[in-house]
Amino acid sequence: ASSGDVLLQAGVDYADGTPVNGGGLADVLMGAGSSIGSAEGNVTVQATNDIHVRLITADSDAAGGIGNVVLTADYDGIDDLAGDGVGEIIDANGDGPVNVVADLLTAEAGEAITLDTTIATLDAANDTGGIDIDETDGIVLRDVVAGGGPVTVDAAGVIVATNVDASGTDDGTNDISLTSTPPTGASGNILLGRVDAGMMGDV
């Protein structure tokens, strides 16, 4: 899209122009070199199972305004009935290339979330598994909640951890790791608000 919003759904059908729940689990699979984007609008991608991300950008022209991105794996469907706790948000590029460019990224999944990002602010939550984010600049972790695994964030700038919670499964696998590795001459502070790894997890 040039500057409008984008909505992509897997696991949703249309009956006479009306969206209805589709049958079974459905993935969003992005092939090598593919991208989904808007110049400055919001981009929403929903799947009843996994989302394999190559590049999703709310700043496709790299100029002017920038929108937000919403990724929902284990999407509950039109009637909020389809969610079953299964569905990951997956970095389909491997290490290196950025998966998401946005002002605010909201990521929700039944299972693990793993992404390389260029974003300002992150809201993320899952039911099980970890949340692993590699950020190319500074980042505000506004509301990051791992339901059953660790939270790992590596950023090349300042990290502001407003609310980071991995206490949902307090069994020693729920560590929180925040690492700032800025380029020479840049600031690399980590500013902590609420950071909770329970009794068994480490920070």
Mean pLDDT: 91
Biggest β-sheet description: 13 strands, parallel
- From the spread of the alpha carbons, the general shape counts as globular
- Rg on CA atoms, Å: 17 Å
Uncertain ranges: none
Portion in beta strands: over 45%
Distance N to C terminus:
41 Å
Task: Write down how many β-strands occur, each being a DSSP E stretch of 2 or more residues.
Answer: 18
What's the quick description here?
This protein is mainly beta. The protein has strands spanning 6-10, 12-15, 18-21, 28-29, 36-37, 43-47, 51-53, 56-57, 69-73, 89-91, 100-109, 113-126, 131-135, 139-146, 151-155, 159-165, 176-180, 190-196.
Describe the structure.
It is a single chain. Strands 1, 5, 6, 8, 9, 11, 12, 13, 14, 15, 16, 17 and 18 form a 13-stranded parallel beta sheet that branches. A three-stranded parallel beta sheet has the order 4-7-10, with no helix packed on it. The termini are far apart. With 203 residues, it is an all-beta fold. The protein has strands spanning 6-10, 12-15, 18-21, 28-29, 36-37, 43-47, 51-53, 56-57, 69-73, 89-91, 100-109, 113-126, 131-135, 139-146, 151-155, 159-165, 176-180, 190-196. It is built from no helices and 18 strands.
Topology summary:
Elements: E1 6-10, E2 12-15, E3 18-21, E4 28-29, E5 36-37, E6 43-47, E7 51-53, E8 56-57, E9 69-73, E10 89-91, E11 100-109, E12 113-126, E13 131-135, E14 139-146, E15 151-155, E16 159-165, E17 176-180, E18 190-196
Parallel strand pairs: 1-6, 4-7, 5-8, 6-9, 7-10, 8-11, 9-11, 11-12, 12-13, 12-14, 13-15, 14-16, 15-17, 16-18
Antiparallel strand pairs: 2-3
